[in-house]
Every structure is written in structure tokens, then in C-alpha cells.
Amino acid sequence: MSFVYEKGFGFKHEMSEKGAGLIFIISAPSGAGKTTLVREVIQQLSGLQFSVSFTTRLPRPDEKEGEDYHFVSHSIFQKMAERNEFLEWAEVLGNRYGTPRPDLKKLESEGIDLILDIDTQGAKKVMKEIGKPVLIYLLPPSLKVLRERLINRGADSLEMVKFRLSNAKRDMEEAYGYHYVIINDRVEDAIEKLKSIIIAERCRRGKDLTLEENKKKWEEKNG
Fold it and tell me: Which neighbouring-strand residues pair with 160?
């Protein structure tokens, strides 16, 4: 029965392999593992792209231009902001971060969904610009685990780790307003959950179109 349903309506192929111009926003405290999660899901799921943000901060040793961020000067960033090229932008610890404004019609026509990695405040700004983004919040298993991850990655001083943990406690309260919450305990499980959310949203958004396109074929098969 499942085989006939999937083959007859094309849900399995169309909705898992092709995007629908959807905007997915994933937020998380620093160190929760969202970068690793997003990269893995993009590799495993077709029709999905990552929105590369612009920043004025210097790249870390393991970061690549155009892959992790677009690293620009303060003057270039300012000109882009004045031209309204950002969907949202903010200044954090003296550095600016901005999400480039996407071409929604082009994304839909090309069958691409976009993942935005932004914080909860940025998500609120995007919601004012874009009708119905899908909000996903990634939680660490505990603050203790989050602290260990921040220390082990070696990117911050102990003072900065304390600052990030303090921000994380406040930021997690915003997760109540998100559509989905994923706990990143085992990365393999978190990957599967994120993939399931994306496929489910594609199916929900493309339901009516899929039914209309396959209605005649279904009626012929079932008399």
C-alpha cells in the first residue's frame, strides 16, 4: 500500500528531492553544533542551499571565504546596508553580521529551499520581511554540555565562554516561539530530525499542487 501511494502521487521523489522556495531559519546558542548539522543535511538532501552571511569580523583558522561567511570591511558592509541588501543585520561584540536578501521567486522557480543560520532577534526581523519562514531551534543536551563544547573548541577565552553561556540561558526562552525544537545530543539523530522537518514542510507546502497534478492519473488507475 505504501509503495502504491508513494509511486502514484510522487511524494517521495518530488518532495524529498526538490525544494519549494521555502525559507528555513535555524537558531541556536553558540556551540550547540548548528554549523555541523546544517552542512550534513545539505549534503544529504537535494534542493537545499545555505545562505552565506556577510560579516566584518576576521575569519577563524578553520573558516573559508564564501563557505562560512563573506568577510568584508566595515565600509563595504555599511554601503550594503544603506542599499538595503540585507534581510537583517546586527552588531555583536563590535562586529557586524548580515543576511543577504534572497530572490524568493528565483528560489521557487529553481526548486531550491534556503537555510538561514541566524539568532532569535534576527529571526524576528526576517519574519517581518518574509511571510512564513519555518523556525527551527537547536538545543544542546544541557548547559553543562554546552560549556564543555565551547571550551573544547578553543575559540574563546573563559570570560567569553561565561558570556556566551549567560546569553544562551536568555536566548533559549525564545525557542517557545519556534515551530520546531531539536535537541542535539547525538548528531546523527539531529540530522535525521532536521531532514524530516524539511521534507514534511515541502510536502505540506506542495500538497495542493501535487494532488491536482496527479488526480487524473490516480482516477485512471483506480477506475
Answer: none
Contact (CB, 8 A) for 31 and 164: yes
- Which residues make Cβ contacts (< 8 Å) with residue 191, sequence separation at least 6? 37, 40, 41, 44
Identity of the amino acid at 96: R
**Residue-number span of the structural domain to which 45 is assigned:** 10-50+112-222
User: Does the model's pTM come out above 0.70?
Assistant: yes
Residue-wise pLDDT for 13-34, tens only, equals 454 568 889 999 999 887 778 8
Same domain assignment for residues 42 and 143: yes
Nearest to 185 by CA among 155, 154, 144: 144
- Same domain? 88 vs 165: no
Domain of residue 187, CATH code? 3.40.50.300
141: nearest Cα among 195, 187, 198, 174: 187
C-beta atoms surrounding 79 within 10 Å = 12
